[in-house]
Amino acid sequence: MDKIEIISIGYKIVHHWNLLLFTVLAITGGVLFSIEVTSWFAYIIGSPLSTVVGTDPVTAGVQLLRTSHRFIGFIWGALLITYGIYLLAFRRVEIFKPLARPLSKQMAEAKALIRHYLTGKPLPPDVEKELERHNVLVSYMAILLIVSIIFLSASGVLLVYKDVLGISAATASWLILLHDIGFALGLLFVAFHLFAVTHPSNRPLLVAMFGDGKAELSWVQKHMPKYLARRGLR
Questions:
Q1: Claim to verify: residue 57 and residue 155 sit in the same structural domain
Q2: Which end of the chain has fewer surrounding CB within 10 Å, N or C?
Q3: Which among 161, 144, 111, 131 is positioned nearest to 229, based on CA atoms?
Q4: What is the model's pTM?
Q5: CB 82, CB 118: distance < 8 Å
Q6: How far is CA 145 from each of CA 62, 91, 98, 184, 185, rounded to the nearest angstrom?
Q7: 81 lies in which domain range?
């Protein structure tokens, strides 16, 4: 066996849709966040509709972007909820397996990985042999993403239905701040994620994600030995 699957078709589909939806949400939300700076973009979006709705291009663009942001936000939420239920129902949650180890071992693995990524220093053998499908840094990043999604989802839904729920202007301001914090945490996750997947040692992961989902067995043996062991492979 020369290659082994490390990324399923379902995982790839969800990842690609998540990438697309988050990017669109970031663009539309970014315009709404700083309309003074991005009014030119709103103008371009709103120009074709402005004559139809009888308003100026910027106003039309902002309204279209706001509506799109809300609609796509609900689609993104539905995708995440559906995939989360699937993972739990079929016991496919593997990303948190490193957290089952004692905190001291987690810290040792995290420090070794950080040194490896920043300086190229090889991983100690005792750390390398304990590597799962996802290392402990990925587990921590997943927690960061979950917190971001909770902040974004809770504040976003409440803001959409603020009139129905009778939310005051002061409370709405706090919700907007919470939404912005969630977005900032999401961008932080994206930065860490991009750094990790573009690192030379993780290139097979990137190729697998946008390819056939498989990686060379020799690479998997070195970077995911515990994952192979659980599958009865070596």
A1: no
A2: N
A3: 131
A4: 0.90
A5: no
A6: 28, 20, 17, 11, 7
A7: 7-93
User: Are 33 and 79 in a shared domain?
Assistant: yes
DSSP assignment of the chain equals --EEE-S-HHHHHHHHHHHHHHHHHHHHHHHHHTHHHHHHHHHHHHHHHHHHHTS-HHHHHHHHHHHHHHHHHHHHHHHHHHHHHHHHHTT---TTGGGGS-HHHHHHHHHHHHHHHHH-PPPPHHHHTT--SS-HHHHHHHHHHHHHHHHHHHHHHHHHTHHHHT--HHHHHHHHHHHHHHHHHHHHHHHHHHHHHTSGGGHHHHHHHTTTSEEEHHHHHHH-HHHHHHTT--
- Contacts of residue 73, Cβ cutoff 8 Å, sequence gap at least 6: 25, 152, 156
Contacts of 29 (CB under 8 A, 6+ apart): 69, 183
- pLDDT tens, position by position, 57-105: 999 999 999 999 999 999 999 999 999 999 999 888 889 999 999 999 9
Tokens representing 112 are: 């070794």
Token pair 């371009």 is found at 44
